[in-house]
Amino acid sequence: MDEVLARQLLKQLRFIKRLLLFFTLLFIASMVVVGIVLFKVVTFVNDTSQKINNLQQQAGQTIDIQGQLCDNPTVTALLPDKSKVCGQ
Question: Fewer Cβ neighbours under 10 Å: the N or C end of the chain?
Answer without folding.
Answer: N
